Amino acid sequence: MNKNRVWFFIVTVLLVSWVTQYVLFSGLLPENYLGYYMYVPALIALIFFLFGKNPIKKQAELFTRPTGLWSWVFAVFYPIFWLGLVAVVAVITGLGKFNPNAFSTLFSWEFAISLAAMSLAMTPAILGEEYGWRGYLLPALTDQRGKLQATIITGLVWGLWHIPSYYLIYLNAGLGDPILLTTIAVIAVAIGAFPYTYLFFLSGNILPCVLMHAIYDKTAAMVLISASGSTGLVQGSPGLLSIHWPFALALIAATGAVLAVFLARHFK
Protein backbone atom coordinates (compact mmCIF):
# COMPACT_ATOMS: atom_id res chain seq x y z
CA MET A 1 0.00 0.00 0.00
CA ASN A 2 1.17 3.53 -0.82
CA LYS A 3 2.77 5.07 2.28
CA ASN A 4 1.33 8.49 1.53
CA ARG A 5 -2.18 7.04 1.41
CA VAL A 6 -1.91 5.80 5.00
CA TRP A 7 -0.78 9.17 6.30
CA PHE A 8 -3.43 10.92 4.25
CA PHE A 9 -5.98 8.67 5.97
CA ILE A 10 -4.60 9.66 9.39
CA VAL A 11 -4.72 13.39 8.67
CA THR A 12 -8.18 13.16 7.12
CA VAL A 13 -9.76 11.09 9.87
CA LEU A 14 -8.34 13.32 12.60
CA LEU A 15 -9.40 16.61 11.03
CA VAL A 16 -12.91 15.45 10.11
CA SER A 17 -13.39 13.78 13.48
CA TRP A 18 -12.18 16.78 15.49
CA VAL A 19 -14.61 19.10 13.71
CA THR A 20 -17.43 16.58 14.15
CA GLN A 21 -16.72 16.09 17.85
CA TYR A 22 -16.56 19.82 18.50
CA VAL A 23 -19.94 20.33 16.86
CA LEU A 24 -21.52 17.44 18.76
CA PHE A 25 -20.01 17.99 22.21
CA SER A 26 -20.15 21.78 22.32
CA GLY A 27 -23.94 21.72 22.55
CA LEU A 28 -24.62 22.88 19.00
CA LEU A 29 -26.77 19.78 18.44
CA PRO A 30 -29.04 17.71 20.74
CA GLU A 31 -27.38 15.07 22.93
CA ASN A 32 -28.95 12.18 21.00
CA TYR A 33 -26.52 12.96 18.16
CA LEU A 34 -23.39 12.48 20.31
CA GLY A 35 -22.57 8.95 19.22
CA TYR A 36 -22.41 9.82 15.54
CA TYR A 37 -18.77 10.89 15.72
CA MET A 38 -17.80 7.24 16.28
CA TYR A 39 -18.80 6.40 12.72
CA VAL A 40 -16.34 8.84 11.13
CA PRO A 41 -13.32 6.45 11.07
CA ALA A 42 -15.42 3.76 9.37
CA LEU A 43 -16.81 6.09 6.74
CA ILE A 44 -13.37 7.43 5.83
CA ALA A 45 -11.83 3.94 5.90
CA LEU A 46 -14.56 2.72 3.56
CA ILE A 47 -13.66 5.44 1.07
CA PHE A 48 -9.97 4.51 1.24
CA PHE A 49 -10.81 0.81 0.88
CA LEU A 50 -12.84 1.50 -2.25
CA PHE A 51 -9.85 3.15 -3.90
CA GLY A 52 -7.54 0.24 -3.06
CA LYS A 53 -7.06 -3.20 -4.57
CA ASN A 54 -9.71 -5.90 -4.13
CA PRO A 55 -11.90 -3.70 -1.88
CA ILE A 56 -14.84 -6.09 -1.56
CA LYS A 57 -12.67 -9.10 -0.74
CA LYS A 58 -10.58 -7.21 1.84
CA GLN A 59 -13.61 -5.81 3.62
CA ALA A 60 -15.45 -9.13 3.62
CA GLU A 61 -12.45 -10.90 5.16
CA LEU A 62 -12.52 -8.52 8.13
CA PHE A 63 -15.83 -10.09 9.15
CA THR A 64 -15.60 -13.63 7.80
CA ARG A 65 -12.14 -14.93 8.69
CA PRO A 66 -12.51 -17.93 11.07
CA THR A 67 -11.94 -17.06 14.72
CA GLY A 68 -10.94 -19.59 17.33
CA LEU A 69 -12.47 -19.85 20.78
CA TRP A 70 -9.49 -18.07 22.37
CA SER A 71 -10.30 -14.88 20.43
CA TRP A 72 -13.73 -14.65 22.04
CA VAL A 73 -12.50 -15.67 25.49
CA PHE A 74 -9.79 -13.00 25.33
CA ALA A 75 -12.29 -10.41 24.08
CA VAL A 76 -14.61 -11.01 27.04
CA PHE A 77 -12.19 -11.50 29.90
CA TYR A 78 -9.21 -9.25 29.08
CA PRO A 79 -11.03 -5.96 29.82
CA ILE A 80 -12.46 -7.44 33.03
CA PHE A 81 -8.98 -8.58 34.08
CA TRP A 82 -7.42 -5.21 33.20
CA LEU A 83 -10.01 -3.15 35.07
CA GLY A 84 -9.92 -5.60 37.97
CA LEU A 85 -6.17 -5.06 38.17
CA VAL A 86 -6.77 -1.29 38.24
CA ALA A 87 -9.16 -1.74 41.16
CA VAL A 88 -6.72 -3.92 43.13
CA VAL A 89 -3.79 -1.53 42.59
CA ALA A 90 -5.97 1.46 43.53
CA VAL A 91 -6.91 -0.13 46.85
CA ILE A 92 -3.38 -1.35 47.64
CA THR A 93 -1.84 2.06 46.93
CA GLY A 94 -4.57 3.95 48.78
CA LEU A 95 -5.51 5.94 45.68
CA GLY A 96 -9.00 4.49 45.81
CA LYS A 97 -11.23 2.39 47.98
CA PHE A 98 -13.95 -0.13 47.35
CA ASN A 99 -17.48 1.16 47.53
CA PRO A 100 -19.35 -1.46 49.63
CA ASN A 101 -22.71 0.00 48.66
CA ALA A 102 -22.07 -0.96 45.05
CA PHE A 103 -21.77 -4.71 45.58
CA SER A 104 -25.48 -5.41 46.00
CA THR A 105 -26.20 -3.70 42.68
CA LEU A 106 -23.19 -4.79 40.65
CA PHE A 107 -23.43 -8.49 41.54
CA SER A 108 -27.04 -9.00 40.59
CA TRP A 109 -28.59 -10.66 37.57
CA GLU A 110 -30.51 -7.51 36.74
CA PHE A 111 -27.32 -5.44 36.50
CA ALA A 112 -25.48 -8.17 34.56
CA ILE A 113 -28.28 -8.31 31.99
CA SER A 114 -28.33 -4.51 31.80
CA LEU A 115 -24.56 -4.38 31.29
CA ALA A 116 -24.69 -7.02 28.55
CA ALA A 117 -27.59 -5.28 26.82
CA MET A 118 -25.88 -1.89 26.86
CA SER A 119 -22.63 -3.41 25.59
CA LEU A 120 -24.49 -4.97 22.66
CA ALA A 121 -26.32 -1.70 22.01
CA MET A 122 -22.95 0.03 21.63
CA THR A 123 -21.58 -2.39 19.05
CA PRO A 124 -22.74 -0.52 15.90
CA ALA A 125 -21.02 2.69 17.00
CA ILE A 126 -17.93 0.83 18.20
CA LEU A 127 -17.79 -0.99 14.88
CA GLY A 128 -17.46 2.51 13.40
CA GLU A 129 -14.22 2.91 15.33
CA GLU A 130 -12.81 -0.58 14.96
CA TYR A 131 -13.43 -0.68 11.21
CA GLY A 132 -11.20 2.38 10.90
CA TRP A 133 -8.49 1.55 13.44
CA ARG A 134 -8.09 -2.22 13.33
CA GLY A 135 -9.86 -2.81 10.03
CA TYR A 136 -7.90 -0.33 7.92
CA LEU A 137 -5.13 1.57 9.72
CA LEU A 138 -3.44 -1.21 11.70
CA PRO A 139 -3.07 -3.66 8.78
CA ALA A 140 -1.92 -0.87 6.45
CA LEU A 141 0.76 0.28 8.89
CA THR A 142 1.78 -3.30 9.70
CA ASP A 143 2.57 -3.93 6.03
CA GLN A 144 4.97 -0.97 6.15
CA ARG A 145 6.42 -0.98 9.65
CA GLY A 146 5.66 -4.24 11.43
CA LYS A 147 3.24 -4.95 14.26
CA LEU A 148 4.99 -3.05 17.06
CA GLN A 149 5.41 0.29 15.28
CA ALA A 150 1.98 -0.11 13.69
CA THR A 151 0.44 -0.60 17.13
CA ILE A 152 2.18 2.46 18.58
CA ILE A 153 1.13 4.70 15.68
CA THR A 154 -2.42 3.35 15.60
CA GLY A 155 -2.68 3.84 19.37
CA LEU A 156 -1.44 7.42 19.16
CA VAL A 157 -3.89 8.24 16.36
CA TRP A 158 -6.69 6.56 18.30
CA GLY A 159 -5.82 8.58 21.39
CA LEU A 160 -5.46 11.90 19.56
CA TRP A 161 -8.77 11.23 17.83
CA HIS A 162 -10.52 11.57 21.23
CA ILE A 163 -9.12 14.99 22.15
CA PRO A 164 -12.14 17.27 21.48
CA SER A 165 -14.72 14.94 23.02
CA TYR A 166 -12.57 14.17 26.08
CA TYR A 167 -11.73 17.81 26.67
CA LEU A 168 -15.32 19.00 26.40
CA ILE A 169 -16.64 16.14 28.54
CA TYR A 170 -14.14 16.79 31.33
CA LEU A 171 -14.66 20.53 31.09
CA ASN A 172 -18.43 20.19 31.49
CA ALA A 173 -18.24 17.46 34.15
CA GLY A 174 -15.93 19.41 36.47
CA LEU A 175 -13.81 16.33 37.23
CA GLY A 176 -10.52 18.24 37.30
CA ASP A 177 -8.20 20.09 34.96
CA PRO A 178 -9.58 19.16 31.52
CA ILE A 179 -6.18 19.54 29.82
CA LEU A 180 -4.48 17.21 32.31
CA LEU A 181 -7.32 14.70 32.19
CA THR A 182 -7.40 14.72 28.40
CA THR A 183 -3.64 14.19 28.22
CA ILE A 184 -3.73 11.21 30.58
CA ALA A 185 -6.76 9.76 28.79
CA VAL A 186 -5.07 10.03 25.38
CA ILE A 187 -2.03 8.19 26.75
CA ALA A 188 -4.26 5.50 28.27
CA VAL A 189 -6.05 4.98 24.96
CA ALA A 190 -2.76 4.78 23.05
CA ILE A 191 -1.46 2.13 25.45
CA GLY A 192 -4.76 0.29 25.16
CA ALA A 193 -4.07 -0.41 21.47
CA PHE A 194 -1.78 -3.32 22.37
CA PRO A 195 -4.43 -5.87 23.39
CA TYR A 196 -6.47 -4.94 20.30
CA THR A 197 -3.49 -5.65 18.04
CA TYR A 198 -2.92 -8.98 19.76
CA LEU A 199 -6.60 -9.86 19.41
CA PHE A 200 -6.89 -8.74 15.79
CA PHE A 201 -3.93 -10.76 14.59
CA LEU A 202 -5.21 -13.93 16.21
CA SER A 203 -7.52 -14.21 13.21
CA GLY A 204 -7.66 -10.97 11.23
CA ASN A 205 -11.34 -10.63 12.12
CA ILE A 206 -12.44 -7.34 13.72
CA LEU A 207 -15.60 -8.67 15.39
CA PRO A 208 -13.78 -9.88 18.55
CA CYS A 209 -12.17 -6.42 18.78
CA VAL A 210 -15.62 -4.83 18.59
CA LEU A 211 -16.85 -7.07 21.41
CA MET A 212 -13.84 -6.35 23.63
CA HIS A 213 -14.15 -2.61 22.98
CA ALA A 214 -17.82 -2.64 24.01
CA ILE A 215 -17.19 -4.67 27.16
CA TYR A 216 -14.29 -2.45 28.20
CA ASP A 217 -16.20 0.80 27.70
CA LYS A 218 -19.30 -0.28 29.61
CA THR A 219 -17.39 -2.10 32.37
CA ALA A 220 -15.18 0.93 32.99
CA ALA A 221 -18.11 3.33 33.06
CA MET A 222 -20.74 1.24 34.84
CA VAL A 223 -18.71 -1.04 37.11
CA LEU A 224 -15.28 0.37 37.94
CA ILE A 225 -15.86 4.09 38.43
CA SER A 226 -18.90 6.09 39.41
CA ALA A 227 -19.27 8.89 36.85
CA SER A 228 -21.20 12.06 37.55
CA GLY A 229 -24.08 12.85 35.23
CA SER A 230 -22.76 14.99 32.40
CA THR A 231 -22.83 15.10 28.62
CA GLY A 232 -20.97 12.05 27.36
CA LEU A 233 -20.67 10.36 30.76
CA VAL A 234 -22.82 7.51 32.05
CA GLN A 235 -25.37 8.42 34.71
CA GLY A 236 -26.57 6.50 37.73
CA SER A 237 -23.75 3.94 37.96
CA PRO A 238 -22.86 2.80 41.49
CA GLY A 239 -19.14 2.37 40.82
CA LEU A 240 -17.00 -0.31 42.45
CA LEU A 241 -14.28 2.23 43.25
CA SER A 242 -14.33 5.58 44.96
CA ILE A 243 -11.37 7.29 43.34
CA HIS A 244 -10.33 10.69 42.04
CA TRP A 245 -10.73 10.66 38.26
CA PRO A 246 -7.09 11.59 37.38
CA PHE A 247 -5.86 8.72 39.56
CA ALA A 248 -8.20 6.31 37.81
CA LEU A 249 -6.96 7.34 34.37
CA ALA A 250 -3.33 7.19 35.50
CA LEU A 251 -3.79 3.67 36.89
CA ILE A 252 -5.48 2.53 33.69
CA ALA A 253 -2.49 3.84 31.73
CA ALA A 254 0.10 2.38 34.12
CA THR A 255 -1.40 -1.09 34.37
CA GLY A 256 -2.09 -1.07 30.63
CA ALA A 257 1.58 -0.31 29.97
CA VAL A 258 2.71 -3.29 32.06
CA LEU A 259 0.29 -5.59 30.26
CA ALA A 260 1.35 -4.14 26.90
CA VAL A 261 4.93 -5.30 27.49
CA PHE A 262 3.76 -8.90 27.78
CA LEU A 263 1.44 -8.63 24.79
CA ALA A 264 4.12 -7.05 22.60
CA ARG A 265 6.22 -10.20 22.98
CA HIS A 266 3.68 -11.94 20.73
CA PHE A 267 4.03 -9.37 17.96
CA LYS A 268 7.20 -11.00 16.64
Low-pLDDT parts are 227-237
| Morphology call | globular
Q: Provide the number of structural domains.
A: 1
Main beta sheet: 2 strands, antiparallel
**SS strand fraction:** under 5%
**Relative helix content:** over 70%
Which series of helices and strands comes N to C? HHHHEHHHHHHEH
Termini, distance in Å? 21 Å
Structural class, by secondary structure, is mainly alpha
**What is the alpha-carbon Rg in Å?**
18 Å
| Total DSSP helices | 11
Count of β-strands: 2
Strand order of the largest sheet: 1-2
Average of pLDDT: 87
Protein name: CAAX prenyl protease 2/Lysostaphin resistance protein A-like domain-containing protein
GO biological process, one term: CAAX-box protein maturation
InterPro entries: MmRce1-like, Rce1/LyrA-like_dom
GO molecular function, one term: endopeptidase activity
